[in-house]
Amino acid sequence: MRLIQGSFRHVTVYSDNPVEMARTWQEKGANRIHVVDLDGALAGSPRNQEVIRRIVKEVTAPLQVGGGIRDMKTIDTYVDMGVHWVILGTAALKNRGFVRDACKFYEGKIILAIDASEGRAAVRGWTETTSVSAIEIARSYEGYGLDAIVYTDIKRDGTKTGVNIEATKNLAESIAIPVIASGGVSGIDDIERLTEIEHLGVRGVIIGKALYTGALSLEDAIRAGVRGQRTEVRGQRSEVRGQRSEDRFTARFAQDAEVAEKKY
Ligand code: AMZ
């Protein structure tokens, strides 16, 4: 299912079978699958763990999972079931010590989600906005050992109005942590524009609604990313922020299969 600007009042269900969806995206070439437990994000603890467990069993593509992960036991459960990366959102603002410990215990597996509306971070299923700027939070987590930051522009999410390239660029330029762009992908142009700022540390993009409506095919998106990689110049390809470009590009195309049990 997909929401518009994260609002639980604007829900479109594209499939009632997330396991089947994940399999489909994998067949179309997804090399990473982004799953959000929306009920969990709202409730503050996981609500769809069994569905996620089934997805992990059914697909070989690695999963990144977020929504309601607020303690170490929940991370343990996800990692034990085979989830590759866990995404922490609300915890970034509410529990710094937990994020620090998580990065220590699960090096390379922790991704921070910064969901922002007009540059300010939102938490708890985006029902609560804060006065903290996205860049401020990101900077404050520099050196913790995060694998990446998923930066979502809430106003663009689910609207297919185009990625907020400017904000993504500003964030990537401000930190050394790799950034995964999210929210608003509307077509191939977004992918091409993101490849142009890839050298700043923009590692990938999450595509949601555009895939479900057919506005963009995963195959075309992947092709555009690979083309961008080939045309990248000025020796920036070999080593950016300690990561080989091959690694960064295999991570580029996540697909977004948000799951929710309940219908709002
Ligand atoms: O669409 C929403 N309302 C929404 C959403 N997609 N609310 C939260 N999330 C996602 C974040 C992140 O991946 O983008 O949930 C995760 C964070 O959850 P939490 O419970 O750690 O704040």
Write up this protein.
By secondary structure, the protein is α/β, with parallel strands linked by helices. The chain has a single domain (2-263), classed as TIM Barrel (Alpha-Beta Barrel), CATH 3.20.20. The protein is 39% helix and 23% strand. It is built from twelve helices and twelve strands. It has helices spanning 18-27, 38-43, 49-58, 72-81, 90-94, 96-105, 134-140, 165-174, 188-196, 209-213, 218-231, 245-250, and strands at residues 2-4, 7-12, 32-36, 63-66, 85-88, 110-117, 120-123, 128-133, 148-153, 179-182, 202-207, 253-256. The strands form two sheets. The protein has an eight-stranded parallel beta barrel with strand order 3-4-5-6-9-10-11-12, surrounded by seven helices. Strands 1-2 form a two-stranded antiparallel sheet. α8 (165-174) links the parallel β9 (148-153) and β10. α1 (18-27) packs parallel to α3 (49-58) and α9 packs parallel to α11. The model is unreliable at 232-255 (pLDDT under 50). Bound molecules: aminoimidazole 4-carboxamide ribonucleotide. The site of aminoimidazole 4-carboxamide ribonucleotide has 20 residues, from α2, β5, α5 and β6.
